[in-house]
């Protein structure tokens, strides 16, 4: 039984790591110069840490078919707001 649980855990970890590798990644302005822009996305009313903003932007960018994104606006008040340029 323990072996079955270990195999199931490894299979789940493999699927999760594959999904993470397919996600859009953050690039800087220099890296973005060599990429093709394809629009933008924004997230609002995010609470928590800056990593939460990065995760929300990466999810939206991936959903839009982007391979990368660059943050162009980031503000914090009661909630975070961020806008990112998407790239192929």
Search tags:
3 helices; alpha+beta; Dodecin subunit-like; BhsA/McbA_stress_biofilm_assoc; 88 residues; globular; 33% strand; YdgH-like_sf; signal
Can you describe this structure in just a few lines?
With 88 residues, the protein is of the alpha+beta class. 43% of the residues lie in helices and 33% in strands. It has a single domain (24-87), classed as 2-Layer Sandwich (Dodecin subunit-like), CATH 3.30.1660.
SSE layout and pairings?
Elements: H1 2-21, E1 25-26, H2 29-32, E2 37-46, H3 50-63, E3 68-76, E4 80-87
Parallel strand pairs: 1-3
Antiparallel strand pairs: 2-4, 3-4
Give the strand order, joined by hyphens, for the main sheet: 1-3-4-2
Q: What is the top-level CATH class?
A: Alpha Beta
* Architecture (CATH level 2) name: 2-Layer Sandwich
Please tell me what the overall shape is.
globular
What does the largest sheet look like? Answer: 4 strands, mixed
Number of domains: 1
Task: Sketch the topology as an H/E string, one letter per element.
Answer: HEHEHEE
CATH topology value: Dodecin subunit-like
Structural class: alpha+beta
């Amino acid at each position: 039984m323990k072996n079955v649980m270990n195999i199931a855990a490894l299979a789940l970890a493999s699927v999760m790591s594959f999904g993470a590798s397919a996600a859009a990644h953050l690039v800087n302005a220099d890296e973005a110069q060599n990429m093709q822009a394809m629009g933008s996305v924004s997230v609002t009313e995010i609470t928590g840490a800056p990593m939460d903003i990065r995760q929300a932007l990466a999810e939206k960018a991936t959903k839009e078919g982007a391979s990368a994104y660059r943050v162009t606006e980031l503000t914090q008040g009661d909630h975070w707001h961020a806008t990112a340029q998407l790239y192929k």
